[in-house]
Amino acid sequence: MTRLTRTFSSEYFDAARRLKGLKYRLVKVFVEGYDDVSFWRGVFDEFETDALRFEITVPVRGDLAKGKKVVMSFIPQSGKDLILCVDSDFDYLFGDHNEQSRQVNRSPYLFHTYAYATENYQCYPPSLHGMCVRATKNDTKIFDFEDFMREYSQIVYPLFLWYAFSAKRHSPHAFTLTDFRNAVRINYLDPRDNGATTLEWLRKQVGKRLATLEKRFARRKEELKAFEREIRDKGVCEENVFLFMQGHTLKDNVVLVVLQAVCQTLRELSNNLILNSERKGVALRNELSNYNNSLRNVREILEDNAGYKNCFLYRKLLEDIRRYVARL
User: Is residue 313 part of a domain?
Assistant: First the structure.
Protein backbone atom coordinates (compact mmCIF):
# COMPACT_ATOMS: atom_id res chain seq x y z
CA MET A 1 0.00 0.00 0.00
CA THR A 2 1.04 3.57 -0.58
CA ARG A 3 1.17 6.03 2.31
CA LEU A 4 -2.04 7.66 1.05
CA THR A 5 -3.83 4.31 0.87
CA ARG A 6 -2.83 3.45 4.44
CA THR A 7 -4.54 6.67 5.54
CA PHE A 8 -7.92 5.42 4.36
CA SER A 9 -9.77 3.93 7.31
CA SER A 10 -13.16 4.04 8.96
CA GLU A 11 -11.87 6.71 11.33
CA TYR A 12 -10.51 8.77 8.43
CA PHE A 13 -13.86 8.84 6.63
CA ASP A 14 -15.72 9.58 9.87
CA ALA A 15 -13.42 12.56 10.51
CA ALA A 16 -13.77 13.76 6.91
CA ARG A 17 -17.56 13.69 7.22
CA ARG A 18 -17.44 15.73 10.42
CA LEU A 19 -15.09 18.30 8.87
CA LYS A 20 -17.49 18.75 5.96
CA GLY A 21 -20.32 19.32 8.41
CA LEU A 22 -22.57 16.76 6.75
CA LYS A 23 -25.92 16.35 8.47
CA TYR A 24 -26.07 12.69 7.50
CA ARG A 25 -23.74 9.75 8.01
CA LEU A 26 -21.79 9.01 4.82
CA VAL A 27 -20.39 5.48 4.69
CA LYS A 28 -17.66 4.69 2.17
CA VAL A 29 -18.10 1.34 0.40
CA PHE A 30 -15.08 -0.20 -1.35
CA VAL A 31 -15.85 -2.71 -4.15
CA GLU A 32 -13.67 -4.81 -6.44
CA GLY A 33 -14.04 -3.00 -9.76
CA TYR A 34 -16.02 -0.49 -11.77
CA ASP A 35 -18.41 -3.17 -13.05
CA ASP A 36 -19.45 -3.86 -9.44
CA VAL A 37 -20.45 -0.29 -8.57
CA SER A 38 -23.91 -0.58 -10.14
CA PHE A 39 -24.75 -3.85 -8.37
CA TRP A 40 -23.74 -2.62 -4.93
CA ARG A 41 -25.45 0.71 -5.55
CA GLY A 42 -28.67 -1.23 -5.98
CA VAL A 43 -28.03 -3.12 -2.74
CA PHE A 44 -27.42 -0.05 -0.61
CA ASP A 45 -30.25 1.95 -2.16
CA GLU A 46 -32.52 -0.17 0.03
CA PHE A 47 -30.91 1.19 3.19
CA GLU A 48 -30.42 4.88 2.45
CA THR A 49 -32.36 7.43 4.50
CA ASP A 50 -32.08 11.16 5.18
CA ALA A 51 -29.68 10.27 7.99
CA LEU A 52 -27.64 7.56 6.23
CA ARG A 53 -25.96 7.58 2.81
CA PHE A 54 -23.51 5.25 1.10
CA GLU A 55 -20.86 6.07 -1.49
CA ILE A 56 -19.75 3.13 -3.62
CA THR A 57 -16.25 3.33 -5.07
CA VAL A 58 -13.21 1.34 -6.17
CA PRO A 59 -10.29 1.81 -3.74
CA VAL A 60 -7.73 4.34 -4.90
CA ARG A 61 -4.17 3.00 -5.02
CA GLY A 62 -1.03 4.43 -6.45
CA ASP A 63 -0.53 1.34 -8.62
CA LEU A 64 -4.21 1.40 -9.80
CA ALA A 65 -4.60 -2.22 -8.68
CA LYS A 66 -8.16 -3.49 -8.27
CA GLY A 67 -9.83 -6.75 -7.32
CA LYS A 68 -10.85 -8.84 -4.35
CA LYS A 69 -7.44 -9.03 -2.69
CA VAL A 70 -7.07 -5.25 -2.89
CA VAL A 71 -10.42 -4.73 -1.19
CA MET A 72 -9.61 -7.35 1.45
CA SER A 73 -6.33 -5.61 2.24
CA PHE A 74 -8.48 -2.90 3.86
CA ILE A 75 -10.01 -5.28 6.41
CA PRO A 76 -7.81 -3.93 9.27
CA GLN A 77 -8.97 -0.38 8.45
CA SER A 78 -12.66 -1.20 7.96
CA GLY A 79 -15.35 -0.17 10.39
CA LYS A 80 -18.71 1.54 10.63
CA ASP A 81 -17.70 4.27 8.17
CA LEU A 82 -15.68 2.10 5.76
CA ILE A 83 -17.19 -1.18 4.65
CA LEU A 84 -15.99 -3.66 2.04
CA CYS A 85 -17.97 -5.62 -0.55
CA VAL A 86 -16.65 -8.52 -2.62
CA ASP A 87 -17.74 -11.47 -4.73
CA SER A 88 -17.96 -14.65 -2.66
CA ASP A 89 -16.30 -16.86 -5.28
CA PHE A 90 -15.99 -20.17 -3.41
CA ASP A 91 -15.24 -18.56 -0.04
CA TYR A 92 -18.83 -18.82 1.20
CA LEU A 93 -18.96 -22.52 0.36
CA PHE A 94 -15.52 -23.22 1.84
CA GLY A 95 -16.31 -21.69 5.23
CA ASP A 96 -13.18 -21.50 7.40
CA HIS A 97 -11.19 -23.85 5.18
CA ASN A 98 -8.43 -21.28 4.52
CA GLU A 99 -7.47 -17.80 5.70
CA GLN A 100 -9.17 -15.94 2.86
CA SER A 101 -12.42 -17.84 3.30
CA ARG A 102 -12.30 -17.26 7.04
CA GLN A 103 -11.83 -13.51 6.54
CA VAL A 104 -14.64 -13.30 3.99
CA ASN A 105 -17.06 -15.14 6.27
CA ARG A 106 -16.06 -13.58 9.58
CA SER A 107 -14.99 -9.96 8.99
CA PRO A 108 -17.77 -7.81 10.51
CA TYR A 109 -17.47 -4.98 7.99
CA LEU A 110 -17.01 -7.07 4.87
CA PHE A 111 -20.05 -8.18 2.89
CA HIS A 112 -20.07 -10.77 0.13
CA THR A 113 -22.50 -11.84 -2.55
CA TYR A 114 -23.13 -15.44 -1.33
CA ALA A 115 -23.65 -16.26 -5.01
CA TYR A 116 -20.31 -16.80 -6.75
CA ALA A 117 -20.30 -13.27 -8.19
CA THR A 118 -22.51 -10.38 -9.24
CA GLU A 119 -22.79 -11.95 -12.72
CA ASN A 120 -24.70 -14.89 -11.23
CA TYR A 121 -27.36 -12.49 -10.01
CA GLN A 122 -27.53 -10.81 -13.42
CA CYS A 123 -28.26 -14.25 -14.90
CA TYR A 124 -31.03 -15.13 -12.42
CA PRO A 125 -33.43 -17.24 -14.52
CA PRO A 126 -36.78 -15.70 -13.47
CA SER A 127 -35.55 -12.34 -14.80
CA LEU A 128 -34.33 -13.50 -18.23
CA HIS A 129 -37.61 -13.27 -20.11
CA GLY A 130 -37.72 -9.61 -19.13
CA MET A 131 -34.26 -9.12 -20.61
CA CYS A 132 -35.53 -10.49 -23.94
CA VAL A 133 -38.55 -8.20 -23.87
CA ARG A 134 -36.36 -5.15 -23.30
CA ALA A 135 -34.01 -6.19 -26.11
CA THR A 136 -36.62 -7.16 -28.70
CA LYS A 137 -39.80 -5.30 -27.65
CA ASN A 138 -41.58 -8.64 -28.01
CA ASP A 139 -43.27 -10.18 -24.96
CA THR A 140 -44.17 -13.50 -26.59
CA LYS A 141 -43.17 -16.36 -24.27
CA ILE A 142 -41.46 -18.81 -26.60
CA PHE A 143 -38.93 -20.12 -24.06
CA ASP A 144 -39.06 -21.12 -20.38
CA PHE A 145 -35.75 -19.89 -18.97
CA GLU A 146 -36.43 -21.25 -15.49
CA ASP A 147 -37.07 -24.79 -16.72
CA PHE A 148 -34.07 -24.66 -19.04
CA MET A 149 -31.64 -23.41 -16.36
CA ARG A 150 -33.03 -25.90 -13.84
CA GLU A 151 -32.33 -28.77 -16.22
CA TYR A 152 -28.98 -27.29 -17.20
CA SER A 153 -28.01 -27.21 -13.51
CA GLN A 154 -29.07 -30.79 -12.96
CA ILE A 155 -26.88 -31.89 -15.87
CA VAL A 156 -23.71 -30.02 -14.83
CA TYR A 157 -24.11 -30.55 -11.06
CA PRO A 158 -21.80 -33.62 -10.86
CA LEU A 159 -19.01 -31.76 -12.68
CA PHE A 160 -19.53 -28.70 -10.49
CA LEU A 161 -18.93 -30.92 -7.46
CA TRP A 162 -15.65 -32.20 -8.88
CA TYR A 163 -14.48 -28.71 -9.82
CA ALA A 164 -15.35 -27.11 -6.47
CA PHE A 165 -13.91 -30.10 -4.60
CA SER A 166 -10.65 -29.82 -6.54
CA ALA A 167 -10.48 -26.10 -5.77
CA LYS A 168 -10.98 -26.69 -2.05
CA ARG A 169 -8.25 -29.34 -1.99
CA HIS A 170 -5.88 -26.92 -3.74
CA SER A 171 -5.68 -29.47 -6.56
CA PRO A 172 -6.89 -27.35 -9.47
CA HIS A 173 -4.84 -29.46 -11.89
CA ALA A 174 -7.24 -32.33 -11.17
CA PHE A 175 -10.12 -30.46 -12.81
CA THR A 176 -9.20 -26.93 -13.81
CA LEU A 177 -11.48 -23.96 -14.41
CA THR A 178 -10.70 -24.27 -18.12
CA ASP A 179 -11.71 -27.95 -18.00
CA PHE A 180 -14.94 -27.09 -16.22
CA ARG A 181 -15.75 -24.19 -18.56
CA ASN A 182 -15.20 -26.32 -21.65
CA ALA A 183 -17.30 -29.15 -20.25
CA VAL A 184 -20.36 -27.08 -19.24
CA ARG A 185 -20.46 -24.43 -21.95
CA ILE A 186 -23.08 -24.52 -24.66
CA ASN A 187 -22.07 -23.47 -28.15
CA TYR A 188 -25.52 -23.05 -29.61
CA LEU A 189 -29.19 -23.15 -28.69
CA ASP A 190 -32.14 -24.38 -30.69
CA PRO A 191 -35.06 -22.71 -28.86
CA ARG A 192 -37.51 -25.34 -30.10
CA ASP A 193 -38.69 -27.77 -27.41
CA ASN A 194 -37.13 -25.42 -24.87
CA GLY A 195 -33.58 -26.28 -25.89
CA ALA A 196 -34.04 -30.05 -25.61
CA THR A 197 -31.54 -30.77 -28.40
CA THR A 198 -28.90 -28.59 -26.79
CA LEU A 199 -29.45 -30.12 -23.35
CA GLU A 200 -29.20 -33.64 -24.73
CA TRP A 201 -25.90 -32.76 -26.42
CA LEU A 202 -24.65 -31.26 -23.14
CA ARG A 203 -25.71 -34.33 -21.18
CA LYS A 204 -23.55 -36.51 -23.39
CA GLN A 205 -20.53 -34.22 -23.08
CA VAL A 206 -20.85 -34.07 -19.30
CA GLY A 207 -21.31 -37.84 -19.08
CA LYS A 208 -18.05 -38.47 -20.92
CA ARG A 209 -16.10 -36.09 -18.72
CA LEU A 210 -17.69 -37.41 -15.54
CA ALA A 211 -16.80 -41.00 -16.41
CA THR A 212 -13.17 -39.98 -16.87
CA LEU A 213 -13.05 -38.17 -13.52
CA GLU A 214 -14.73 -40.99 -11.60
CA LYS A 215 -12.28 -43.50 -13.05
CA ARG A 216 -9.22 -41.32 -12.50
CA PHE A 217 -10.10 -40.31 -8.94
CA ALA A 218 -12.06 -43.33 -7.76
CA ARG A 219 -10.40 -43.13 -4.32
CA ARG A 220 -11.82 -39.63 -3.79
CA LYS A 221 -15.50 -40.58 -4.05
CA GLU A 222 -16.14 -40.70 -0.28
CA GLU A 223 -14.40 -37.34 0.20
CA LEU A 224 -16.52 -35.94 -2.62
CA LYS A 225 -19.70 -37.13 -0.90
CA ALA A 226 -18.66 -35.46 2.35
CA PHE A 227 -17.93 -32.24 0.47
CA GLU A 228 -21.34 -32.43 -1.20
CA ARG A 229 -23.02 -32.64 2.21
CA GLU A 230 -21.09 -29.56 3.36
CA ILE A 231 -22.14 -27.36 0.47
CA ARG A 232 -25.73 -28.59 0.53
CA ASP A 233 -25.93 -27.06 3.99
CA LYS A 234 -25.02 -23.74 2.30
CA GLY A 235 -27.93 -24.01 -0.14
CA VAL A 236 -26.32 -25.74 -3.13
CA CYS A 237 -28.51 -28.32 -4.87
CA GLU A 238 -28.88 -29.90 -8.29
CA GLU A 239 -31.34 -27.25 -9.46
CA ASN A 240 -29.37 -24.07 -8.64
CA VAL A 241 -25.77 -24.59 -9.75
CA PHE A 242 -26.15 -21.38 -11.79
CA LEU A 243 -25.87 -19.43 -8.52
CA PHE A 244 -22.57 -21.00 -7.42
CA MET A 245 -20.55 -21.70 -10.58
CA GLN A 246 -18.02 -19.18 -11.88
CA GLY A 247 -19.93 -16.07 -12.94
CA HIS A 248 -18.22 -15.33 -16.24
CA THR A 249 -18.53 -18.95 -17.36
CA LEU A 250 -22.26 -18.80 -16.66
CA LYS A 251 -22.78 -15.42 -18.29
CA ASP A 252 -20.59 -15.67 -21.37
CA ASN A 253 -20.74 -19.38 -22.16
CA VAL A 254 -24.32 -20.21 -21.21
CA VAL A 255 -26.81 -17.44 -20.55
CA LEU A 256 -25.78 -15.06 -23.32
CA VAL A 257 -25.81 -17.91 -25.82
CA VAL A 258 -29.38 -18.70 -24.77
CA LEU A 259 -30.51 -15.07 -24.69
CA GLN A 260 -29.10 -14.28 -28.11
CA ALA A 261 -30.77 -17.30 -29.69
CA VAL A 262 -34.14 -16.51 -28.11
CA CYS A 263 -33.87 -12.83 -28.98
CA GLN A 264 -33.08 -13.67 -32.59
CA THR A 265 -36.23 -15.77 -32.81
CA LEU A 266 -38.32 -13.01 -31.22
CA ARG A 267 -36.94 -10.41 -33.63
CA GLU A 268 -37.82 -12.65 -36.57
CA LEU A 269 -41.34 -13.12 -35.21
CA SER A 270 -41.83 -9.37 -34.93
CA ASN A 271 -40.48 -8.70 -38.40
CA ASN A 272 -42.69 -11.42 -39.91
CA LEU A 273 -45.71 -9.98 -38.14
CA ILE A 274 -45.02 -6.59 -39.67
CA LEU A 275 -44.34 -8.05 -43.12
CA ASN A 276 -47.63 -9.96 -43.01
CA SER A 277 -49.63 -6.90 -41.97
CA GLU A 278 -51.75 -4.79 -44.31
CA ARG A 279 -49.07 -2.12 -44.55
CA LYS A 280 -47.53 -1.60 -47.96
CA GLY A 281 -44.80 0.49 -49.54
CA VAL A 282 -43.45 3.40 -47.49
CA ALA A 283 -45.68 2.60 -44.51
CA LEU A 284 -44.30 -0.95 -44.36
CA ARG A 285 -40.69 0.20 -44.68
CA ASN A 286 -41.20 2.81 -41.97
CA GLU A 287 -42.75 0.27 -39.60
CA LEU A 288 -39.87 -2.16 -40.13
CA SER A 289 -37.34 0.63 -39.67
CA ASN A 290 -39.04 1.91 -36.51
CA TYR A 291 -39.10 -1.57 -35.00
CA ASN A 292 -35.51 -2.49 -35.85
CA ASN A 293 -34.21 0.89 -34.66
CA SER A 294 -35.83 0.21 -31.27
CA LEU A 295 -33.86 -3.00 -30.67
CA ARG A 296 -31.15 -3.11 -28.01
CA ASN A 297 -28.08 -5.21 -27.31
CA VAL A 298 -29.06 -7.95 -24.87
CA ARG A 299 -25.56 -8.10 -23.32
CA GLU A 300 -25.78 -4.44 -22.31
CA ILE A 301 -29.27 -4.96 -20.92
CA LEU A 302 -28.15 -7.99 -18.93
CA GLU A 303 -25.41 -5.97 -17.25
CA ASP A 304 -28.07 -3.65 -15.81
CA ASN A 305 -30.39 -6.47 -14.75
CA ALA A 306 -31.80 -6.02 -11.24
CA GLY A 307 -34.45 -8.73 -11.39
CA TYR A 308 -32.82 -11.01 -8.83
CA LYS A 309 -34.11 -9.53 -5.60
CA ASN A 310 -36.25 -12.54 -4.74
CA CYS A 311 -33.23 -14.85 -4.82
CA PHE A 312 -32.70 -16.47 -1.41
CA LEU A 313 -28.98 -15.63 -1.47
CA TYR A 314 -29.68 -11.97 -2.19
CA ARG A 315 -32.10 -11.85 0.76
CA LYS A 316 -29.35 -13.37 2.90
CA LEU A 317 -27.00 -10.56 1.83
CA LEU A 318 -29.61 -7.93 2.68
CA GLU A 319 -30.07 -9.42 6.13
CA ASP A 320 -26.32 -9.09 6.81
CA ILE A 321 -26.43 -5.40 5.86
CA ARG A 322 -29.61 -4.87 7.84
CA ARG A 323 -27.83 -6.11 10.97
CA TYR A 324 -24.89 -3.80 10.25
CA VAL A 325 -27.19 -0.77 9.81
CA ALA A 326 -28.95 -1.62 13.10
CA ARG A 327 -25.60 -1.29 14.92
CA LEU A 328 -24.83 2.20 13.61
Answer: no
